[in-house]
Here is the input.
Amino acid sequence: MEHPYVLVSLSAIAFEDIEFAGAQAASGAMAMLRMFKGESYKLLSPQEVADYSATLNERAIIQMYTNRTFAGTSQQVARRLEELQERTGAD
Here is the structure.
């Protein structure tokens, strides 16, 4: 290998309904929280996530992971992926 390679890993959810995409991102974030707590990584429905009585710390974790997900329409997600590739130079 002559040159180092760059790999970027992330979650992306594209759907025509932006709110639906965001709700799915929150479900993935909740799965991460459950994993940290030693619980099943099972994906909960967006309604189950919304109904969950999270502590302040848990809400912060869910929000952090939701914000890390590229969620939106296919055009929005594609644009963010292209911007990320430009910033990182990922191969």
Summary: The longest helix spans residues 18-36.
